[in-house]
Automatic annotation (TrEMBL):
SUPFAM superfamilies: (Trans)glycosidases. This is Beta-xylanase. InterPro entries: GH (IPR017853), GH10 (IPR044846), GH10_dom (IPR001000), TAT_signal (IPR006311). It catalyses: Endohydrolysis of (1->4)-beta-D-xylosidic linkages in xylans. It holds the Pfam family Glyco_hydro_10. Gene3D superfamilies: Glycosidases. Keywords: Carbohydrate metabolism, Glycosidase, Hydrolase, Polysaccharide degradation, Signal, Xylan degradation. One of its GO terms (molecular function) is endo-1,4-beta-xylanase activity. Residues 42-354 form the GH10 domain. Residues 1-35 form the signal peptide. The lineage of its organism: Bacteria, Bacillati, Actinomycetota, Actinomycetes, Kitasatosporales. It comes from Streptomyces curacoi. Its EC number is 3.2.1.8.
Length: 356
């Protein structure tokens, strides 16, 4: 009896030491991971990211949801989803004051079924606006009312269902000046603070983000966000994070200042996330280009893991089958970690390596 206890204690201690070693080596040890490994099941990107306290997500779009193999992978590999179009203004308020949340709801329901969290995208953007909004002139008072109603109705609808909102998308030009959108031209730069405040009133808990592309590097455009974020914080405007879209392209070079850039936003007390990641290339894709792409996916994953407040990474869909790139950048493509047949590419294994 006595010896058995001692033996089992020793065994326990040895097991503990082994577990610690495995943890140090980055090997899964939790009950779920152990069960998975017993059954020969590889941990998913989401499992691996969770060990770092991060999420790993993908955008998706309603028309793709009839594709069962696609849906299966979307539901199993990721723990976060962003609707690629379903929550944009043209989709959610197709006529003034007439709201339609069916597209976004479909994606929220799908995410719920797979225990995934949802990023709301996006409330205020110059693109994909409904015709009723862009086809006439508005006085500042009118447009303020329209904007407030749109934001608050949508944020209220998704309260408790999305954990973050891209409140304003793509507010700056490349040189760091304000983009001359209908909102900027009619309301001035204060529309951003107003939008954040209105969103906060409608959902006190959701994380509020500004989101843009080409702000991965330190430069005039990311400087503009840094400056604005600092001002907004100083004025007590609710802002929780900066979303770096990270639509990268091999021909433009890797954003080597990404990690430093993430860090300077952390120092302002803000979360960051990589919200729309893809890495496009001129077609045809060669082994060499795909290897470089894999390196970049590894590097950007490592950059996020290196900065405590970089909370997660979202691919702008996960398969080349449904990438937006070929339609928007003619001659370019192959931007995502899974190919058009849903087979994982080198990029996928590089992300796994980085997360291990
Ligand atoms: C893209 C969608 O993926 C496409 O389906 C749509 O036709 C155009 O918009 N930055 C953003 C995203 O913030 O909303 C864009 O999504 C890609 C660029």
């Amino acid at each position: 009896m006595h010896t058995t206890t001692i033996r089992s204690r020793t065994r326990l201690r040895l097991a503990g030491a082994l577990a610690a070693l495995l943890v140090a080596a980055g090997v899964a040890t939790g009950p779920a991971a152990q069960a998975d490994e017993r059954h020969g099941k590889e941990p998913t990107l989401a499992d691996l990211a969770q060990r770092h306290g991060r999420y790993f997500g993908s955008a998706t779009d309603n028309p793709e949801l009839v594709d069962e193999p696609y849906k299966a992978l979307l539901g199993s590999e990721f723990d976060q989803i962003t609707p690629g179009n379903g929550m944009k203004w043209y989709a959610t308020e197709p006529q003034q004051g007439v709201f339609d949340f069916s597209k976004g709801d479909e994606i929220v329901d799908l995410a719920r079924a797979h225990h995934q969290k949802v990023r709301g995208h996006t409330l205020v953007w110059h693109s994909q606006l409904p015709g009723w909004l862009t086809s006439r002139e508005w006085t500042p008072a009118e447009l303020r009312a329209v904007l407030k109603k749109h934001i608050q109705t949508e944020v209220r609808h998704y309260r408790g269902k999305v954990f973050a909102w891209d409140v304003v998308n793509e507010a700056f030009n490349e040189d760091g000046t304000y983009r001359e959108t209908i909102f900027y031209k009619t309301l001035g730069p204060g529309y951003i603070a107003d939008a954040l405040r209105w969103a906060r009133q409608a959902d006190p808990r959701v994380k509020l983000y500004l989101n843009d592309y080409n702000i991965e590097v330190i430069g005039p455009k990311s400087d503009a966000y840094h400056r604005l974020a600092k001002e907004l914080k100083a004025q007590g405007v609710p802002l929780d994070g900066i979303g770096l879209q990270a639509h990268l392209a091999l021909q433009y070079g890797y954003p080597t200042t990404l990690e430093d850039n993430l860090r300077r936003f952390s120092r302002l007390g803000l979360d960051t996330s990589l919200t729309e990641v893809d890495i496009r290339m001129y077609l045809p894709a060669t082994e060499e280009k795909l290897a470089q792409q894999a390196d970049w996916y590894r590097d950007l994953t490592e950059a996020c893991l290196a900065v405590r407040r970089c909370v997660g990474i979202t691919l702008w869909d996960y398969t080349d089958k449904y990438s937006w790139i070929p339609a928007f950048f003619p001659g370019e493509g192959a931007a995502l970690p899974w190919d058009e047949e849903l087979r994982p590419k080198s990029a996928y294994f590089a992300i796994r390596d980085a997360l291990r």
